[in-house]
Structure prediction request, 83 residues.
Amino acid sequence: MDATFAAALATLGKAIGAGICMGIGAIGPAIGEGNAVSHALEGMARQPEMASTLRTNMIMGCAITETTGIYSLLIAFLILFVL
Prediction:
């Protein structure tokens, strides 16, 4: 096996691995944030006087949920540039 072919194959493996990491890592936050926003809007529709409290809690929940996506982005960068 040629050395350049092996290097190209390793680069291809890294790119595919990082893509899979980001693809799977983005599913959880997307579902979680969609669920949180859905239920917060439902609560606001039922009790409009609680809208500000629900909005604040929803934004905090979405921020915490998004850390999973950011973590998978970090792992994808590590796969691409460190390994």
About this structure: The helical segments are 3-46, 51-81. The chain has a mean pLDDT of 90. The two ends are 21 Å apart (CA to CA). The domain at 29-83 is CATH 1.20.20.10 (F1FO ATP Synthase).
